[in-house]
Amino acid sequence: MMQKRLPNKIGAFHCGVCLIMEGMDMILLLLAPLLLQRIAMSTASTCLLQGGFELPGFMSEGNFTIGGIFPLHYRVELPQTDFKTPPVSAHCRGFDPRAFRWALTMRLAVEEINRSKDLLPNHTLGYKILDSCATPVTAQRAVLAVLNGEDSRENTMCSASSPLLAVIGESGSSQSIVVSRTLQPFRIPMISYFSTCACLSDRTQFPTFFRVVPSDDYQVKAVAQLLKHFGWTWIGVVTEDHDYGRFALQGLKKEIENTDICLAYHEMIPKDYSTEKVLKILEVMRMSTARVVVVFSGEGEFYPFLKEFSKQNITGIQWIASEAWVSASVLAETYPFLDGTIGFAVRKGYVPNLRDYVTTVNPWNYPSNVLVQELWETLYACSPPSAATTNTQLSPCTGHETVQEQHSAYMNTTSPRVAYNVYKGVYAIAHSLHNLIQCTPGHGPFLNGSCADVSTIQPWQLQHYLQDVSFFISGEKVNFDMKGDSIPSYDLINWQRDTYGQIQFVTVGLYDGAKVAGKELVIDKDTIKWTGQRKEARCTFLELKCHLLNDSCPPGSRKAVRAGEPICCFDCVPCDSGKISNETDSIDCMACPEDFWSNTDGTHCVPKVVEFLSHDAMGVTLTVIAIVGACLTVSVLAVFLYHRSTPIVRVNNSELSFFILLSLTLCFLCALVFIGEPTSWSCMLRHTAFSITFSLCISCILGKTLVVLAAFTATRPGNNIMKWLGPRQQRVIIFSCTLVQVVICAAWLISAPPFPSRNTQYQRSKIILECSVGSDLAFWCVLGYIGLLACLCFVLAFLARKLPGNFNEAKYITFSMLIFCAVWLAFIPAYVSSPGKFTVAVEIFAILASSFGLLLCLFAPKCYIILIRPEKNTKNHLMGKEK
Fold first, then answer.
1. Cis previous bond, 301, omega within 30
2. Rounded Cα–Cα distance for residues 852 and 375 (Å)
3. Which UniProt key words apply to this protein (predicted)?
4. Predicted structure pTM score
């Protein structure tokens, strides 16, 4: 109608404008789209469906309406599209009689409640049951259809709140996540009968979600305990590519993290079924030595996977089923190789009159219901007499078919599990509505003690009562915790085939999550039948555990997983130095505290060795050498004092010789300060004593060099230089040169004095006690000044080396300075590169070597003449005038 009205309006408008001004054609062209939009908005007074909902189901009117979402088909075929025409809706394939029974259970429960005189008297429940096709997208379409209705006249969502109060659904966790998030803005509570993902317990993300099935947190604990109970330590895991599979795998890994159970592989059934991808998974299973396979998947995803598995020559697999498919009759009847499967199922219950109810559903009682006709096609492979739905590939039905016991997927009513959960979910809503209606004004749970208006009940008001609901059904108490979860309990099911070839789901144990840790699982081993009809659990899988497995890693080592191999194929790697492990099978090694180091076995932390130049063998040796040097110097001093009146002592300026010997004695003794544990005083004394004593010694030698050079120069006519180098001037030279070093040391001690430090970085297994110089600049200034004095002495002595006489003092001074400079030049790289106490030893060696060099070069020749050749101790011999 809108399309017919638009041309008339546009034409009238255009003619009116033409009468006024013919030149406005361009303006009209610009205004036309705006007018069209305004006209369309004025005519759109109702909500219009943007596409058709081809979702068959069941519907019934009532005072209160609840929804039901069930996976009546277990797979979806995506249609081809050419991107030229609107895409066609996905086709649901693979009718599931088991899920159809769940939907009928919801109808049965509603009809029972409507007939009850005690529950919701004078009120009736209505329902809208639709198909999710076991996929999240179709589940969302279904819940939107439940909210809006299939007819455009049912548009209450556009102008008012939804008449829908609650939803029973869904089976798959991924579908429930989508449905719950779709319902959340309307605050409509949802009770799931088979969604177990632990993620749904998060009240911040899913505040309106409830379930009457235990969370996967408990299922993975039960599976892990089952694996431990039978000693299955080498397993494979197959999951569906949905949240259910991902979260279940994550939980199982957490449960087996610190156990002997190892994961050989994890494969994921593709969300969009691909034969190529499935074949790759099957090849992994064929090549693996793991014969125990845990499967977390819904039957819809697992069915086509098993169809391909049956074509491959893979044998000896012991299947561990998750609750999502452990009671799937369609799988048990179709694939005999699943015999012996064991897994945890939802606790069974009792639904009265369910058997009689499902037997009344047939194409003759429901001639227009497509789902009922599909049920008959699945059960009997015949086409019911309906022109609209006749399948030309099937023979027509006779009309005399009756549901038989062999149709266990549909007729398993004696011990229903999921159907029982559906039954409990409907009664939970009914009891909550009943409590809401029975509210007494002034004692209600809402503002100021008010109650809900029965004529306009809001979904959030029903959720308040649903959270607190508690009732008994079939002898079981039903309630919800703060997360919307129910009491966790499972039956341990074993797939067994009876003498008639019929599959039986036999309960062989139970898991009760309410019991204390370690006592939850109870198993009757004698009733279990394993894969291949074996009687022993050890025979249910090949004893080919990971042939790469090692024994337990002893303390002092850690497990190192081999690259590209399963997590339990590891090597025992010794802990790195400084790390320990004091437990068997440690995953990682712990680092020792800073002052501790690992023992040789890597099992304990022991205090680090504290290293410094102590009075050990090296320290004692250096001490003895220093004392010998000092004693030798004192002996030379005594010889010179005793023979101070002889020519050789007098010619060599006895006062300067005494100063040199005294300073050399101090040089030998200052080496002793470097030995022992560093302290604040010893660190400051080491470098200052060393620098001042050596500066004093070199200053004396410099004074002697100047006197020798001046003495021979003064023999020339008119040269009176000796008057400037008398005893007083010599003392001034020595004092001045030494004073400079004293000033440098004082500035060093004031600004940044040396201090003891603990070096733990150079050698991490030791604590090296050393003296930090404080200021590197001051340290190198001290050494540089000593080097400057030595170089000056060397140059002056070198210039006087050819002066006449048998006893040329300048030659000995030159040689002594040459040795002194060589020693200290060699000291610098050795000092920088030597670690720990050897740094101090190198410094002491440089002090002693240079001191011995000066002592021997300057005084050994003189002592030789004084003590061995006294006949040469004459003035004529020294002056070279002896004939």
1. no
2. 113
3. Cell membrane, G-protein coupled receptor, Glycoprotein, Membrane, Receptor, Signal, Transducer, Transmembrane, Transmembrane helix
4. 0.55
